[in-house]
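Late entry, evening session. Most of the bench is empty. Finally got around to the prediction I had been postponing all week. Sequence below, unchanged from the version circulated by S.P.
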Amino acid sequence: MRKQLIILSAFFISMTVFAQNDELKTAEKAVKSNDFATAITAINQAEGLIANADQKTKAKFYYLKGLTLYQNGAPQADIDKVGAAFNQLISYENETNKPKYSAEIGQLLNKMIVSVAESASNDYNKAIETKENTDYLKAAKEFQQVYALSLRDTSYLDNAALVYYFAKDYDTSIKLYEQLLDLKYTGITTVFIATDKASGEDVVYGDKKAMDLQVKLGLAQNPREEKKESRREMIFKNLAQNYSDKGNNEKALEIISKGRTEFPSSYSLLIDEANIYYKAGDNAKFKERLEEAIRLNPTEPTLYYNVGVMNMDQKNIDEAIKNFEKAIELKPDYADAYNNIGAAIIEKAAPIIEEMNKSLADFKKYDKLQVQQFDIYRKALPYYEKAYELNPNSINVIQTLMGLYENLEMTDKLEKIRVVYEKVKQ
């Protein structure tokens, strides 16, 4: 009985092999005649029988499957599926160390990579001009396809993630950025550059060998290697920005925290964290992070300016003025800082005005308080005038100056600024 079963099993195996070969022959013939509908049917039927096939049969199956899906480069070909099939063949022949079809398929694969990458770049340039989400989305999908065709070119996955963000497809962008982090992608690469002797322009070469050959032939000079900096910090930034734009500030802060753990001295991530706190309405944390940023970058005027704004919100007027003055020290033409010093000084008149409103019947006290009020206005006036000098089209500064000139009975200046106001408000 056992002998009969063994013979029967062998019979089934033989039948399977015959079926495989028949389907592959059908597929091969159909591919040669461009009958891809018949070819795909044959490939699908052979796929269920290929698991136990020998190396030669498997390699041929993967080869024919790739060609069937490729359809001679027809526009309707599914690039993702083609790329997966081509790479499956190349990977298999690398494993078995019998590269019968890899050279041919490798050429087709490279042809597709160049074509799709070029299309992605062109569509991205178009999207930059139109600013249309649909154009960005088309480019993003193509960058993603390049990565599907060549998994070693992780930079295209990075490009796709960014362009999906521009397309406001935050979910896909998040997915790809998280994939990049999982892959431990850094983006650090070496670029090979030499100057073309004929044109005098710098040319980027695919590898050192290609660059050295051009130099050896006397066609290029000044060969050099440049390292691109890590992109990983930027990935944390962009991933957090995706979550923030989706309204998930909590998750955005979580990503920033991970990024700052990996890049503890990152000024950029710190500023992003501050901005997310501001967006979330946590002004105390926003101010705290800005003060930390000042310690990292003490010569950035906008940091002092923003801390000054937060101090004003918290009624720390004198501290706010110090921050605005430091901003001006670092950036003498900082119109908004001059404006805010004026506003901070005027803020000191608030309790005086409140007391005046309580003393309307006490003329003597009222007049005394008004003198104090106008003294404060006089101190604020030069800052507003400087802000106007630096930004003569600011309607808010012009209106404030009109109010100050009127209160201080500076009639000549009031009439001049009114003329400006009439022109600017139109």
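Two things to note before I forget:
The radius of gyration is 35 Å.
Residues 1-18 have pLDDT under 50 and may be disordered.
Will write this up properly tomorrow.
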